[in-house]
Amino acid sequence: MSDMLLVAKKEIRIGFRNPWAYSFLILFTVFSLSLLLINAQYEVSGYSSVTGSMLSLILYLLPLMSLFLGSFSLTAEKEEGSWNLLSTYPLGTTSFILGKYIGLSVVLLTILFFGYGVMGVASGMVGQNFEIHTYLLFLFFSCGLVLLFLTLALWIGSLAKNRWQALTISVMVWFFTIIAWPTLLIAGLGLFPYLWIKPLLTLFTLLNPAEFVRLFVVIKLGGGSVLGPEYYQWVNWIQGSSGSLLFLLLFFLWLLFSLTCVCWIWERRRAHV
């Protein structure tokens, strides 16, 4: 536990000295204020074309930010040789990876809360308050994206040999999970019999963290009807009494599985150091 906390503190210090972090901080703050301008022109409550567009904008920015900062953190350990030194100490792989994840999560969530905090203060000053339920769901959506994509970033960082590889793989993962996902999903499901579509759709949705979190928030905003009949079961269980608890369980299982895979990959690489 103490080793994990030491790694996390080190990562937080490095993270807040990283110019990339402050670039994303400024970008996300400007982005949050632009959401406030949208709120000033339209009523942002429940699911509508406006909230759908706002969710899409968040979906473009936050996963890319998480992938870059997370993957660069691990590849920097390899390029700068610090991992070669750390591997000679009795530092467990699990403590190292979890410390990295906790530290990076603190940095990324600080960026998020700062941006949403500025937006909240500014909206109160100009008298254009967000509907509280919608505001909290947007915040939850953003935190969920960051935490899930950060595990993918660590996965990329454990596989990539340098920052250029990490950059290339991060952009590819972002493109396929965010931009190309609807097209790939429609094209892929069209190759299977009709009876297979719903089970495969559930499986593919769980494999894509962006789609997994987006569906939950859209349904909670009252937009389940726009998803189509294929998502009827998703709407039922999310709107049910235990829907949120089940979602959180799946969310933490996703985190646990991903971090376990990262630890396994890193441990195998450690054996060859």
From TrEMBL:
<keyword id="KW-0472">Membrane</keyword>
<feature type="transmembrane region" description="Helical">
    <location>
        <begin position="136"/>
        <end position="159"/>
    </location>
</feature>
<keyword id="KW-1133">Transmembrane helix</keyword>
<feature type="transmembrane region" description="Helical">
    <location>
        <begin position="54"/>
        <end position="76"/>
    </location>
</feature>
<protein>
    <submittedName>
        <fullName>ABC transporter permease</fullName>
    </submittedName>
</protein>
<dbReference type="Pfam" id="PF12679">
    <property type="entry name" value="ABC2_membrane_2"/>
</dbReference>
<keyword id="KW-0812">Transmembrane</keyword>
<feature type="transmembrane region" description="Helical">
    <location>
        <begin position="20"/>
        <end position="42"/>
    </location>
</feature>
<feature type="transmembrane region" description="Helical">
    <location>
        <begin position="171"/>
        <end position="197"/>
    </location>
</feature>
<feature type="transmembrane region" description="Helical">
    <location>
        <begin position="97"/>
        <end position="116"/>
    </location>
</feature>
<feature type="transmembrane region" description="Helical">
    <location>
        <begin position="245"/>
        <end position="266"/>
    </location>
</feature>
